[in-house]
Design brief:
Oligomer: single chain
Structural class: mainly alpha
Helix content: 55-70%
Protein name: Cohesin subunit SA
Subcellular location: Nucleus; Chromosome; Chromosome, Centromere
Largest sheet: 5 strands, antiparallel
Radius of gyration: 42 Å
Main location: nucleus
Organism: Sander lucioperca
Low-confidence stretches: 1-36, 415-419, 667-688, 774-783, 986-1052
Strand order of the largest sheet: 1-2-5-4-3
Keywords: Cell cycle, Cell division, Chromosome, Chromosome partition, Nucleus
Number of helices: 44
Shape: flat
Number of strands: 5
Length: 1052
């Protein structure tokens, strides 16, 4: 009997299938005319059609079970994506050794076919399919929604098949034996499609059998209850009949359990360690389901061990399926006693999986461990530290554990009074929880990030953290009135919690350094956020001045700076927005604090807070602006008065710092800074001749730089570094001063470093920054990794100081070429600094920056050529040709916008062509330019040329090569061939390698005496291609007169 993949149901079941599909379609309100369908096609028609067709298949099976079984066999083979042929032969005995020796799986390379012969008793099946089947996507792994949909429908088919057969043919010892044999053999195939599809079918078949076994168990229990009732009525005949029924049901359940055991041992035990991760995931997912649904048979240590072993799988999805399966077990309290041995054996592994590199696995493991008291207090203490995790889902899960175990179980202190109002009870409850939270935070000595702790608790403990009335009342209460109160450290932490909760309510869970937060809020979340902002503004606008004026505040700048952040989150559309008295009190208290605190954190926070309050859209902007202007004017008046008297420099410095911090935040330089600057310089000019002092200042600057230059060669390494940093900082500050003030007014201040000093600074950078581990005379291998990191930090500071000189125009931009040389070699250590300098110089002058890149590549190439010609020992500063080419490729990646950097890229090509061919005189001794191989490096920039520019650059190349005799058949001209190919291939949209081979075989230069002869002997197709390459010069040169619409000329 031979069945093709599309004929298996088109005989006796065709009529039944048509009627079934019509009946299913009628139940959905639609009459559909469908021709004869296969079982495989039924999968695509939905569950209702599936049930009807399976019912008709069962009727056909009762009539002719062999033919129907072959239909079912062909169905599973088709679901595997196999479009081959199935041949069936009858087998008389399973134990025939001659038959078993024929069960093979092999391929025939001559015919291009694969064969698999296996026993599905009473059939010997032979499946033949093409050899490339394993490389084709079969239905289960197809991308998009079809693959997911087929997976669901295929699983439904297996479950519906068992459900419809459970009362009839499933116990005939023929259907299930053949089906299990088929799935066992195909799941053992080396073809992935067979193995994956049939393993899924087998485990889903076992799951369906579990449902049947559960149904039989319920029937046995009901029968047992009925038997007990009948025994009390002493009806002997009914009791015997009930015993026979109960025995029959028990035998059926035993038969089902036998089938499950065969599938588990024959398929699961072979496939749960399959090389394919999808198969391992399927096995673990279904195993967890079996143990939960049918715990009496599967929830034993002999089955649990597979779950524990596969938690060490290298694929995250497999580990995730194990954790999800265990969640269902640990979440069912009656099952916990059976998990004691498993918990003691695999607890360490579950604890370590909270640090899994896959975030979802870590989160689900945390949920598993928090499901019940399965760990010791020490283990829970370790898990609670995950509230500081950088992954928000994991931190939020740890926050739930913290809230449920420490905060939600805290009881308030018992009150001596018999009667206590509800508000006071709530306050005591909140105070007790906050005390527990403060204790947990103080015990966590490794973490000092309150904002992350608040974010972790926000989802589960938001009501506690948003109780701003209780938080502020605790901070404002007198320690003598209600016990000892809070210590200063606890007050500081509680203030940080208050500020963090305000920020969280106003801005949401987006935190720097923490990923996984929800980025888009829905309408309900936006409404909640608006309500929270209104509540916090109404309350804190009135209470915050009291907090700022509290007795303990003046002792701590950090607490003051934290509290002064709160107004930045106020909502201007709240009912309290019109309360100008509260806003005036707040600004007045802030001004009083600025008179007492001069630390940078307090000043910067106050500047940002004033900026927020003075916004044009706020209701209190007029009051806040008046307070700000009054504060700044007060400082200006004080500074003006102090400049006329002999006072301490420290006082003037403090006032100037306060003023400029506020000025930078509010951009006040257009009004008040002019007044202050004129007052300061009026004092300076009135004290003497300003020009003479400026000349003296420049002389001092020159002397300082000369002394610093001498110290660059000092024997002490630290002295050399400090001298270099001092010179760089002074020159950078002087350059910034020239940019701020008008150069025409202060000409004597102008100072340019001498060439000697510039060379000394560059040499210092090359010798002390770009040093490898084998070149560093001060080797740090014995001093440990910490010393190496410290040394790297110092070298990064040295390089950054030198780069500032170039960015600020103190040094010529061409000096950056020496730094760019090390971009690839020291990318891990200094790549970010060098790239930033590259972008900054490009903002200053694109063309000059591109010339610097060209200079860098050409200098490296010249050094390499000289080293090769000398034949001496390789110098450490000389890079290989491959490194130079890689450096050019990295430079190319920095040119993102082709139109924006068009002129720069053209200039790079022009300079490269001139570098190779200028001043080259061809002689028999030197037939090629000495720097010809530079064209290979230059070809890295060809991809950044626009199409018309490529033609123009090619024309420019032809102009320089026309004077020389070039034979592209010779190997020495290979770089020119490659460069031409990069221009032509990209211009035509083809591959450069094909043009290289084309050039070497077909391109013949105009001066070659063999060109005409070779061209005449070429095929017409090759003649056209060669003629195109020969005449490309004419076509490019004519673009100026006959330009297309998309052609733009670039002047070279």
């Amino acid at each position: 009997c031979v069945l093709s993949g599309s004929e298996n149901v088109k005989r006796k079941s065709a009529k039944a299938s048509r009627s079934s599909v019509r009946r299913a379609g009628g139940s959905r309100g639609k009459q559909r005319h469908v021709e004869a369908v296969t079982l495989f096609e039924v999968v695509t028609m939905g569950r209702s059609a599936m049930q009807a067709v399976i019912d008709d298949w069962i009727e056909a099976y009762v009539t002719d079970r062999d033919s129907s079984l072959l239909d079912l066999i062909s169905f599973f083979i088709q679901c595997s994506g196999c479009k081959g042929v199935v041949t069936a032969e009858m087998c008389q005995s399973k134990e025939d050794s001659e038959v078993m020796s024929k069960m093979v799986e092999e391929l025939d390379e001559v015919s291009g076919l694969q064969y698999k012969k296996f026993l599905a008793f009473p059939w010997i099946l032979t499946v033949t399919w093409p050899m490339d089947t394993d490389s084709v996507e079969y239905p289960l792994i197809q991308s998009g929604p079809y693959g997911r949909w087929f997976h669901s429908e295929f699983c439904d088919f297996v479950s519906v098949l068992v459900a419809q057969c459970q009362h009839s043919v499933i116990f005939d010892s023929y259907l299930m034996n053949t089906l299990i044999s088929l799935l066992t053999e195909l799941s053992d195939s080396y073809v992935r499609a067979f193995r994956h599809t049939c393993t899924l079918a087998a485990v889903k078949l076992l799951s369906s059998l579990v449902a049947v076994a559960l149904s039989l168990s319920v029937s046995i229990e009901n029968s047992q209850k009925l038997h007990e009732v009948q025994k009390t009525k002493t009806r002997q005949k009914s009791t015997l009949q009930q015993e026979r029924i109960q025995k029959k049901i028990t035998e059926k359940r035993a038969e089902i359990e036998s089938m499950m055991d065969i599938i588990f041992k024959g398929i699961f035990l072979k496939r749960y360690r399959d090389v394919l991760p999808e198969i391992r995931s399927i096995c673990m997912e279904e195993l967890g389901l079996w143990m939960k649904l049918y715990s009496s048979a599967f929830l034993t240590d002999s089955y649990l061990k597979y779950m524990g072993w596969m938690m060490h799988d290298k694929m995250p999805d497999v580990r995730l399926k194990c954790v999800l399966g265990l969640q269902g077990l640990y979440g069912d309290p009656p099952l916990l006693p059976k998990l004691d041995l498993f918990t003691s054996r695999f607890k360490d592994r579950m604890m370590s999986m909270t640090l899994d590199k896959d975030n979802e696995v870590a989160v689900q493991t945390m949920k598993l461990l928090t499901s019940d008291d399965v760990l010791s207090p020490k283990d829970y203490k370790q898990l609670l530290q995950f509230v500081y995790s950088s992954q928000r889902p994991l931190a939020a899960t740890a926050g739930e554990l913290l809230f449920s175990r420490l905060l939600n179980t805290v009881a308030p202190a018992s009150d001596t009074q018999d009667e206590i109002n509800e508000e006071e009870a709530h306050k005591q409850q909140t105070s007790a929880r906050l005390k527990a939270l403060l204790q947990f935070y103080q015990e966590s000595e490794l973490h000092k990030h309150v904002v992350y702790l608040v974010d972790s608790l926000w989802d589960c403990g938001g009501a506690l953290l948003k109780d701003w009335h209780t938080l502020t009342s605790i901070l404002l209460q007198d320690s003598s009135s209600h016990g000892p109160g809070l210590t200063q450290a606890e007050q500081a932490v509680l203030v940080e919690i208050l500020v963090a909760s305000v920020r969280q309510a106003a801005e949401g869970p987006a935190l720097a350094g923490r990923s996984g937060a929800k980025k888009v809020m829905n309408a309900r979340e936006k409404k909640t956020q608006l309500d929270d902002c209104t509540k916090l503004t109404d309350h804190l606008l009135v209470v915050l001045p009291k907090l700022l004026s509290k007795v303990f505040i003046p002792r701590s700048c950090d607490i003051v700076a934290s509290l002064m952040k709160i107004p930045q989150y106020f909502l201007s559309e709240c009912p309290e927005a019109d309360n100008t008295q509260a806003v005036s009190g707040l600004t007045a208290e802030m001004g009083a604090i600025l008179d007492r605190h001069s630390g940078p954190p307090v000043l910067e926070t106050a500047a940002r807070t004033f900026l927020s309050l003075c916004g044009a859209e706020t209701a209190w902007c007029s009051v806040a602006r008046a307070a700000r202007d009054s504060l700044v004017q007060c400082w200006v008046d004080q500074l003006t008065t102090l400049l006329g008297d002999t006072v301490s420099l420290k006082v003037i410095k403090a006032l100037v710092r306060n003023y400029f911090i506020l000025m930078n935040a509010h951009q006040l330089h257009k009004t008040l800074s002019v007044f202050l600057s004129m007052a300061v310089f009026r004092k300076l000019v009135s004290s003497g001749d300003f020009c003479e002092k400026a000349v003296a200042q420049r002389l001092q600057l020159r002397l300082f730089c000369e002394r610093g230059n001498q110290c660059l060669s000092h024997s002490d390494h630290s002295v050399r570094q400090q001298a270099f940093l001092g010179v760089c900082d002074v020159l950078t500050a002087h350059s910034y001063q020239l940019q701020v003030w008008d150069p025409s007014s202060f000409g004597p201040l102008l100072y340019t470093p001498s060439p000697k000093l510039q060379r000394a600074l560059l040499t210092f950078v090359c010798m002390h920054v770009f040093v490898g581990p084998d070149c560093d005379s001060q080797s740090n291998h014995s001093e440990g990794k910490g010393t190496e990191l410290e040394d790297l930090h110092k070298r990064r500071n040295l390089l950054a100081a030198f780069c500032k000189l170039i960015v600020h125009g103190v040094l010529e931009m061409s000096m950056a070429a020496e730094v760019f040389m090390y971009y690839v070699k020291y990318y891990n250590d200094f790549g970010d600094i060098i790239k930033e300098m590259m972008y900054r110089t490009r903002q200053m002058d694109r063309i000059e920056s591109a010339r610097t890149l060209v200079l860098c590549l050409q200098q490296l190439f010249v050094r390499l050529k000289r080293e090769q010609e000398s034949g001496g020992r390789t110098h450490p500063g000389v890079q290989t040709f491959t490194c130079i080419k890689e450096l050019a490729r990295r430079f190319t990646l920095t040119f993102g916008d082709l139109v924006k950097f068009r002129e720069c890229v053209v200039m790079i090509h022009r300079s490269g062509i001139e570098f190779v061919f200028q001043e080259f005189s061809q002689t028999p001794e030197t037939p090629t330019p000495p720097y010809l191989s530079y064209l290979t490096i230059l070809s890295e920039f060809s991809g950044k040329l626009l199409k018309p520019d490529k033609k123009t650059v090619f024309s420019y190349l032809q102009k320089h090569t026309a004077e020389h005799i070039i034979d592209l058949r010779e190997e020495c001209w290979q770089p020119l061939i490659y460069y031409r190919a990069s221009l032509l291939a990209v211009a035509e949209g083809e591959d450069a390698v094909s043009y290289v081979s084309s050039d070497r075989k077909l391109y013949l230069p105009n001066r070659s005496p063999f060109s005409k002869q070779k061209l005449e002997g070429a095929t017409p197709k090759h003649q056209n291609q060669a003629q195109k390459l020969l005449n490309i010069e004419g076509s490019v040169l004519s673009t100026g007169n006959e330009a297309d619409d998309d052609t733009v000329e670039v002047e070279l």
